[in-house]
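Hey, quick one: can you model this chain's 3D structure?
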Amino acid sequence: MRTWVLLCGLTTGVIVCGFVRNGDKRDSLEQNTRFSAGQLATSFFEVKSNGVEDVEHVVAHAAATPRAVMFINFDWAIMEPQRTHFAEFVIEWERLHPDQVVWFHYVDATPVTHKRYKPLRDLPGWPQLEEASGVGSHIHGWGEVVWLKDGYALKVAGIEDYESAGKLVEQTEKLFFGQQ
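Sure thing. Here's the predicted structure for all 180 residues.
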């Protein structure tokens, strides 16, 4: 079965990208332009990468946009609370900033586990972030969030480092627009 690109627009400017194995789900997901956090998190759960190429495609898409936020998922990790937290963040961003275009990408990075998380670690800025942190890899399977500006990794953090969607919005405003 051909993998579909999932492009679910909440409203103008917010897009969630990933891949859905079941092409039959595509139409219903694309037509539903308003999601609750629970519904959006459930649609994330249905996103599966079929191989390294799928992951490369989604990461390349994020890197090609002026401002992108990626949520990194692995099917070997329990991600339900993190998925819902990311969905709440996407919805809160759109509520507060309907005219500020930020592309939100849900990345099932499971197929690149054995490749030391390429292509994520190949993004410009990523090696410098890892070096500066002193902890090695930024990928731990806890629902990492990556902020990209013009393809450059500005920050990688666990989503649970932010106690609320509002704190994630504040971080995004600061990184992308210099707001405090």
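One thing worth noting: Helices lie at 25-31, 37-45, 52-63, 80-96, 126-133, 165-177.
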